Amino acid sequence: MASITIDGVNKIFGKTPALKDISLEIRDGEFMVLLGPSGCGKTTLLRCVAGLEQVNAGHVKIGERDVTGLAPRDRNIAMVFQSYAVFPHMTVGGNIGFGLRMKRRPKDEIAKRVQEGAELLGLVPFLDRYPAQLSGGQRQRVAVARALVMDAPVLLMDEPLSNLDALLRLQARADLKRLHKEVKRTTIYVTHDQVEAMSMGDRIAVMREGAIEQLGAPMEIYDNPATQFVGGFIGSPPMNFLRGAVRDGSFAGEGFSLPMSRPRADLQGREMVLGVRAEHITIAGDGVPARVMVVEPLGSHALVTVLVGKTAVKIQAPIDVAVRPDQAINLRFDEATLRWMDAGTGSAIQH
Amino acid sequence: MRARTEQFLPFALLLPSIGFLGLLIVIPMVQALLLAVMAEGGGFSLENFQRMFADVNFSDAWRNTLLLLILIVPLQIVLALCMALLINSRFRGHGFFLYVYAIPLAISDLAAGILWLAVFTERGYLNSTLQNAGVISQPILFLSFDNLGGILTAIVIAESWRATAIVLIILIAGLQLIPRDFFEAADLFGANRLRRTVHVVLPLLRPSLQSALIIRTIFAFQTFAVVFALAGRNMPVLAGEAYTWYATNRNEHVAAAYAVLLLGLTIVATVVYLRVLGLREAEVQR
To answer: What region, left, alpha or beta, does residue A308 occupy, with left being phi > 0 and alpha being psi -120 to 50 degrees?
Structure first.
C-alpha cells in the first residue's frame, strides 16, 4: 500500500502550460477523483503520475519512493485506459495476465491470479474469447481486471466509464466503487462527469486550466464551493448565481432585491455573486418575485426555471408543483445555505 | 431512379480499374498460359515445359532464384522492421531518415543495378577506394563468373538497397495504425522495449507484415534487372530465363512456360503467407 505525493509538478506542452505547480497528497487507500472540463489538465496529471508524461518540474512520489524520473514499468502502478487498450490479439485470459507475464511471474501463479481477477469481474465464461467478441462493458471489465491482478499499490483510471452507454455506466460505477472497497488500492480516477466524482470519490480535486481549484470531500465541495467555477461545475443542475450588492439590509441586483435577516456588516456595499443550489429555493406565498419560464417534470421532482430580475434561476420543486410558464411567483431562499463570492475574482468569501 | 443509380454506381466506379487490370494483366496472362501449353506447330502439348525443365540453365536458375528469395526477403523484412521501429520511435529528426530511406524508391531497378555495377566492377568505386586506402594492391573481381559468393553478395546488397524502402513504407503505415494506447499499456504493464515489440507491436503489425511479405516475395521471384546488370548471364534466374528465351532464343512458348512457373510459385507463396500470418476470425474487430 502506498500514498502518492505530487509536489510542485509543472508540465508544459510547447509553450502552453498544462499543469501549473500542482501539489496534491493522496492518502494510502484513498479514492481520489480528478474532476474538470476537458483541457483542464486532469489527464495530463494522471499521465505524469503514470510516467507516460515527463514532468518539467516538480516531483512525484509513490510511498516514500521518488518515481519522478522512472519509466512507467518501474513505478509499480496499474492503469485503466480510457480506450481500455485491451490487446485484440490476446484472449481475455491473455490480457488479464499480460502484466504478470511481463513481470515474469511463475506460470501457476499467473493462472491463479487470472482466475481470481476474472471471478472478481465476472469474466470467467469469457476467458478464452478475444476482445472483438466482447461487448464494450465486458472489454472495460477486462481492462479493470488486467489492472487489478497486478497487485500494484496504485491504480490509475482515465475516464474508464466514458465509452459506456448511460445505463451500463450506472452499473459499472457501483461495481468500481464496490471493487475499491474490496481491494483498497490507492486510486486516482480522472473524469469530467461530476456525478461520477460525487458518487465515487473519497475526495475530489476540481481542476481548471492546469491548477487545482478546490480539494475536498464531495459534499464539502458541493456545499461550499471555493469558487463560482466549482459551484457551476458540480451539481445537476449547477449552482444558481445572482449578481448584486448588499445595501440597507438586503442583497439587491438587477431587477431583484433579497431581504436579509442578519446582514453581515463586512459585506456592506461590496459587489458580490450569490450562489444558491436549486434545492435551497422554495416557491412560497411571499418573498422575492420571479416569473416562471420552463417547468420540467423529472419523475421524482420538477425542475422549474424562473427569471429573477434578469437572471435565470433553476429551482427544485415537488413534482406536483402547480405553476405554469409566465406565472408570477415568489421565492424564499434558505439563508443558511447561501454562498457569497466576490464578483471580481469569483472566490468564495469566508464566513 | 435513385435506387438504380445506387445499384450501378459501384460498378461504374470499378470499371476503370477492371478495364485497366483486364487489358494489362488478365489478357496477357491468358495469352501466356495459352502460349505455354501450345506446341510451336499448333495444338496443345507439354513440350514447352519439357524443354524448360531440360534446359541446361534451368536448375541453376531455379536454385539462384530460390537462393535470392531466401537471402533477400528475410533480410529486407528485418532491415525494414528495424528502420520502421526506429522512425516510429519519433526521435528528433526521424522525418529526415524516412526521406533518406525512401530515395532508392525513385530509381528504376535497371538503373539501380548499373549503379551498383559501378561500385562492384573491377575498376569500380569499391576497388579504387580499397586500393587508395592501401587495403588491397590488386582489384578484387567481385563479379567474376567463378565468384558466385561475390555475385550473390553484390546482388543481395543492391536489391536490399533498392527495395527495402517499399517494405519500410508499408510497415511504417502499419505501425502508425496501431493506437498509441497499446504502446503505453505495454510500457505500463511492465514490458521493456524488446518485449513490447515481440508481444504487442509485432502481433498487431501482422496485417502489414503480410502485405509486405507478399509484395516482396512476388518481386523477389521477378528479380531480373539488377541480376542482369551485375552478373549478366553468369547468374541465371527464372525471370531472366524467360527474357532470354523470348528475346535471344526467339521462343515465346518456352518463355511463357517460365512465366507460368513463376505465377504458380507466386500463388503458392501468397497462400502460405495468408494462412500463416492471417488474423484469426475472432480477432477481427467488427
So the answer is: beta
